[in-house]
C-alpha cells in the first residue's frame, strides 16, 4: 500500500507539520530512523534520539511534539507507540486471507461442531466432541484433541497441538508449533523407578491471550492450568502443570514456570526467568531477565539477580561484585607489604 504523507496523517489522527510540496510525498513502509528511506515513515519515541533525525533519509517522522527546524514532514500524535502500531498495520504485507471452510485433507471426528466462518487448513485433525467458535482459523497440520473447545475469532497457526479437554477462549492467538495440554513433568520414585503421576486435569486459556511459537503449557494433575485474559507469552516458554497466571501478564522468551506457581495480574517476567515450584508472585511485580525466584514475592516489587532480590539491593550487590578484582589486587599488595615488614623486623632481631 502507498499513502501520501497527508493521507497517512489522517489515518493516524495526527497533526501534520509539513511544507506544501511535502504533503503529497508517497509513503509505502515503516522503518527505524537509522535505515529508513525516502518512502518510509519513521518515529522518535524519546527526545534523546532527535539528533538521529538530522541524518535520517526517512520521508516522514512520527513524533510526540513538533521539532523546530527539522526539514522533514512531522506527524504529531499524542501516543507515538499507538501511532506506530497503526502505521505498521497500514503497511503490513497483504497476505492471502484464510478461506472459510474445511480443507478436504482435514480429518474430522464424531460430534464435532464447527461454527460459521471457520477456516480449517490442510492436514488438520479434529477429534471427537470438539467445538470451534465463529470465524476462528485452524492452520495446516494442527491437532485438536477430544472434547476441547476453541472460542470465536481465534487463530491457531500451523502445527499447533491442543490436547484433550482443553478450553481456549475467544480472540486467542497461538503461534506455530506450540502445545497446549501436554502431560506435566511429575514423577514419584517408587520401587526403584520414577513413575509418572497421572495428569487428569485440563488447561484453560482465557480471552485475548497471545502465545508465541514453540511454547508448552502442561495440563493439570487435577483441576486446571489457567492463563488469564489478556496475557501475552513470548516464544519458547514452559508453563508447568497447575500453574495459574493472572490477567494482563507479560512473559518473555525462555521463561520457565514450575508446577503450581501462582502469578497475580499484571506480572512481568523478563527473558530466561525461572520460578521454582509453588512460588506465588503478587500483582504488578516485575522480575528482570535471568532471575531465579525461589520463594514468594509480594505485589508491586521489582526483582533482579539470582537468587532474585529487590532491585536496589541487587544493584548494590552487583556493584560490590564488580569491585572484587580491584579489592583482590589491593589485598595482594597489602599481603606483600606485610611480608616485607615482617621480614625487615626479623632482620633487626
Walk me through what this model shows.
There is one protein chain. The strands form 6 sheets. A 12-stranded mixed sheet has the order 8-11-14-17-20-25-28-31-34-37-39-40. A 10-stranded parallel sheet has the order 9-12-15-18-21-26-29-32-35-38, with no helix packed on it. The mean pLDDT is 95. The chain is α/β, with parallel strands linked by helices. The chain starts with a strand and ends with a helix. Helix content is 16%, strand content 28%.
Task: Provide tags for this entry.
flat, ten-stranded parallel sheet, UDP N-Acetylglucosamine Acyltransferase, domain 1, 40 strands, alpha/beta, 3 helices, Udp-n-acetylmuramoylalanyl-d-glutamate--2,6- Diaminopimelate Ligase, Chain: A, domain 1, twelve-stranded mixed sheet, 349 residues
What is this structure, in a nutshell?
This protein has 349 residues and is an alpha/beta fold. The chain is built from 3 helices and 40 strands.
Write the layout of secondary structure elements.
Elements: E1 3-4, H1 5-12, E2 15-17, E3 26-27, E4 29-30, E5 40-43, E6 60-63, E7 74-76, H2 80-90, E8 101-102, E9 107-108, E10 113-114, E11 119-120, E12 125-126, E13 131-132, E14 137-138, E15 143-144, E16 149-150, E17 155-156, E18 161-162, E19 166-168, E20 173-174, E21 179-182, E22 187-190, E23 193-196, E24 202-205, E25 210-211, E26 216-218, E27 224-227, E28 232-233, E29 238-239, E30 244-245, E31 250-251, E32 256-257, E33 262-263, E34 268-269, E35 274-275, E36 280-281, E37 286-287, E38 292-293, E39 302-304, E40 309-310, H3 311-348
Parallel strand pairs: 4-5, 5-6, 6-7, 8-11, 9-12, 10-13, 11-14, 12-15, 13-16, 14-17, 15-18, 16-19, 17-20, 18-21, 19-24, 20-25, 21-26, 24-27, 25-28, 26-29, 27-30, 28-31, 29-32, 30-33, 31-34, 32-35, 33-36, 34-37, 35-38, 37-39
Antiparallel strand pairs: 1-3, 2-7, 22-23, 39-40
Amino acid at each position: 500500500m502507498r499513502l501520501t504523507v497527508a493521507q497517512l496523517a489522517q489515518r493516524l489522527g495526527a497533526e501534520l507539520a509539513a511544507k506544501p510540496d511535502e504533503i503529497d510525498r508517497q509513503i509505502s513502509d515503516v522503518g527505524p530512523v537509522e535505515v529508513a528511506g525516502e518512502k518510509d515513515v519513521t518515529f522518535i519515541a524519546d527526545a534523546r534520539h532527535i539528533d538521529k533525525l538530522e541524518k535520517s533519509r526517512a520521508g516522514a517522522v512520527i513524533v510526540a511534539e513538533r521539532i523546530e527546524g527539522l526539514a522533514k514532514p512531522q506527524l504529531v500524535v499524542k501516543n507515538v507507540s499507538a501511532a506506530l502500531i497503526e502505521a505498521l498495520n497500514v503497511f503490513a504485507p497483504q497476505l492471502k486471507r484464510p478461506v472459510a471452510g474445511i480443507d478436504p485433507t482435514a480429518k474430522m471426528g464424531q460430534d464435532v461442531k464447527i461454527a460459521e466462518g471457520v477456516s480449517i487448513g490442510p492436514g488438520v485433525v479434529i477429534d471427537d466432541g470438539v467445538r470451534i467458535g465463529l470465524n476462528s482459523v485452524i492452520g495446516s497440520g494442527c491437532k485438536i484433541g477430544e472434547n476441547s473447545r476453541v472460542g470465536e475469532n481465534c487463530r491457531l497457526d500451523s502445527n499447533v497441538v491442543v490436547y484433550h479437554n482443553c478450553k481456549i477462549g475467544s480472540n486467542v492467538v497461538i503461534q506455530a508449533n506450540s502445545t497446549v495440554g501436554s502431560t506435566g513433568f511429575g514423577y514419584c520414585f517408587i520401587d526403584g523407578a520414577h513413575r509418572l503421576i497421572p495428569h487428569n486435569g485440563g488447561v484453560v486459556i482465557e480471552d485475548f491471550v497471545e502465545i508465541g511459537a514453540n511454547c508448552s503449557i502442561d495440563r493439570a494433575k487435577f483441576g486446571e492450568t489457567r492463563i488469564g485474559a489478556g496475557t501475552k507469552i513470548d516464544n519458547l516458554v514452559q508453563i508447568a502443570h497447575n500453574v495459574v497466571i493472572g490477567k494482563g501478564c507479560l512473559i518473555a522468551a525462555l521463561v520457565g514456570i514450575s508446577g503450581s506457581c501462582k502469578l497475580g495480574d499484571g506480572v512481568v517476567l523478563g527473558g530466561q526467568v525461572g520460578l521454582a515450584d509453588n512460588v506465588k508472585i503478587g500483582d504488578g511485580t516485575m522480575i528482570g531477565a535471568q532471575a531465579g525466584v525461589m520463594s514468594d514475592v509480594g505485589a508491586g516489587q521489582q526483582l533482579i539477580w539470582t537468587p532474585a532480590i529487590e532491585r536496589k539491593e541487587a544493584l548494590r550487590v552487583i556493584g560490590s561484585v564488580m569491585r572484587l578484582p580491584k579489592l583482590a589486587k589491593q589485598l595482594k599488595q597489602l599481603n606483600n607489604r606485610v611480608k616485607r615488614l615482617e621480614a625487615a623486623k626479623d632482620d633487626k632481631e
